[in-house]
Amino acid sequence: SILTVEHTNDTVHPYIRRDVKHAEQVPFDVWIAAVLKLNNPKLKSWVQYIKQHRWHEDSVIQNSLARFATAEKETARYEPLADLSNRILDMAKGHLPGVKSYPIDDITMTRNDPSPLNRIPEHGPLGAVRKPDLLLVRGEKLETSGSKVVKFDWTDVLKFSEVKAFQLLSDAYDKLRRDRRLPETSKAGGKVGKQKSRRKPPSNKVAQVPAAGHSRGSGQLDSNPSTGSKRGHDHEDIDNAGTSKRHYSESPESLVTADGKVQAGGYALEVAACTYGTRLFCLGEVIEDDKVSLWYYDAAGIVRTRETISIIHDFEKYAAVVVAFGCCDPFQFGALPSVIRPPLSSPYPENFPPRTLKGYSLEMTMPETNEQVILTLQDHIFTQYSLVGRRTFLYAIKANSKPLKKPLIAKFSYQVTARRAEQELVEIARKAGVEHLPEVHLWGDLWDMSEGVRAAFHIKSEDYEDRVLRGLVYSKYLPLRELFSESCDLLPDMIDQMVDCLHDLRYKANILHRDISCNNIMYEKRRGKIRFILIDFDSASVLDLEGLPVIRSKDLWYIVTIPPIGSNAKERTYRTYIRQWEHGTLGQVANEKTRLFCYEDGFERISIPTQSKTLIPWLARFWTVFRMAFLVKTIYGKQVDKETLGGAVSRDAIKKALAGKSRLCHSVWNLLADFIKAHPVLTSDEDGSQSEGPSDEDVSKPPAKRRLDRRGRLLL
Question: pTM for the full model?
Answer without folding.
Answer: 0.79
